[in-house]
Amino acid sequence: MNTCEPIAIVGMGCRFPGATTPGQLWELICGEVDAMSATAPPSRFDARALHDPAPRRPGRVVSLDGGFLDDTTDFAPGAYFVTERENTTLDPQHRVLLTCAGDALADAGLPPEAIAGRDIGVFMGQSTGEHWDRLQGTTTVDMYAIATAAARSMASGRISYAWDLRGPCTTVDAACSSGTLAVHLACQSLRTGECDTALAGGVSLVLGTDHTVGYSAAGMLSPTGRCRFAHENADGFVRSDGAGVLALKRLSSAQADGDTIHALILGSAQASKGRTAKAIIAPSTDGYLQVITRAAATAGITPDAIGYVEAHGNAAPAGDRLELQAIGATIGAHRPADSPCLVGSVKTNIGHPEAAGGVAGLIKAALAVRKRIVPASLYSDYPTSQVDWAGLNIAPVPQATPWPGNGPAIAGVSSYGLSGTFVHILVGEPPN
How many Å separate Cα 276 from the centre of its chain? Predict the structure, then answer.
């Protein structure tokens, strides 16, 4: 078994603000659409009484803006072997994941009858449990409630059950790195032969206000309601909904099966920053340096081959600065002076879907390398002065541009979770 073999992305499914398919997400990004909404769907919560534009007010939210999915989407529980009783308390996050998994399997040309009983792995990232928080005190706590709402392990378990998949099955929580960590673990499982196909992704829905209140009190949320990554006036992130699932195979298997290959995962890495930051939740340049270097080594490429990085980019000014410095030190410094590493973030379009944020960036990067186009990143007109862009040999993307250079298109995808976990994934264009 070739433990360095590229992994082929053969199917994709997603739900993000303004986009219910990867194609729609690409159109939204290329159309430079800002998909933020002024309020959450009325079926969820009404946060108007909590609104206070003054920053860092305990018990208040500085902005009502967010990126939200449509709550009216139909879900047929029987199609996923969910009973009607289970469906009454089923976490909406698991409904969205099941739907995206079905889309990814269909995109990969894998009908249910062809995969039942096979060693197909399922790796999903989920970090929040706001649905369970809302249910407590309003429903009987029994095994139905535990299995449908309390247990995050069911994010992956329900997918394996729905399609009778017999490979590894796990749900991971690394905060905002959850989805990309799930993809990394899926790639490792494929390369060791533990499974022959894998579904990997992540989900996050904003279903309550407790987390929002906490982030607002810490000064982490944007008072202006926009994720302005690497902008001079970046002021924090905006919480949003999202889910994305990828169908993955070893490249040799995908080619033997005649699959359409969207892009290749050339290498990936995960690492903790340890105590290299002043606080446990804070990122560090060392953490980014470590995973970018490891991912490049795993992929067998030199950093100068990376033309674009889809950044974690959640618009926290200090965090953006650390990430950009790391990208410059590991990639920009090795590229030609007339071809800096381009840097952007899908969060400028759709907000920050937390556990699914890295998967959104990965889908964007997969489409970008395939089309050899780097789409514009919103709010790139006034880059932060806290970074020496020219000295680091990196550049923002204020408008869509052809892929830099004539070599193979390779993009990096970064994510960071407040638990201290960094993940970096290198994505390459598919073979001819």
Answer: 24
Spatial distance between the Cα atoms of 270 and 273, rounded to a whole number of angstroms:
10
| CATH 3.40.47.10 domain span(s) along the chain | 7-256, 268-428
* Coil vs helix vs strand at 67: strand
CATH of 268-428, one of 3.40.47.10, 1.10.8.110, 3.40.50.300, 3.90.1150.10: 3.40.47.10
Question: What residue ranges in 66-180 does DSSP mark as E strands?
Answer: 120-126, 169-172
Beta-strand relationship, 242-250 and 394-395 = unpaired
| CA–CA distance, 172 with 156 (Å, rounded to integer) | 9
pLDDT one-digit tens code per residue, 332-354: 999 999 999 999 999 999 999 99
Under 8 Å CB-to-CB from 359, ≥6 apart: which residues? 14, 125, 179, 180, 183, 201, 202, 242, 243, 244, 245, 246
The backbone region for 144, taken as left when phi is positive above 0, alpha when psi lies in -120 to 50, beta otherwise, is alpha
Rounded CA separation 139/137 (Å) = 6
| Class of domain 7-256 as given by CATH | alpha beta
> Mind listing the pLDDT tens digit for each residue in 357-403?
999 999 999 999 999 999 999 999 999 999 999 999 999 999 999 99
pLDDT in tens, 36-45: 999 899 889 9
| Radius of gyration, alpha carbons of the chain | 20
- CA–CA separation, 34 and 349 (whole Å): 5
CA 428 from centre of chain: 17
d(CA 244, CA 216): 26
Closest CA to 368 of 432, 302, 413: 413
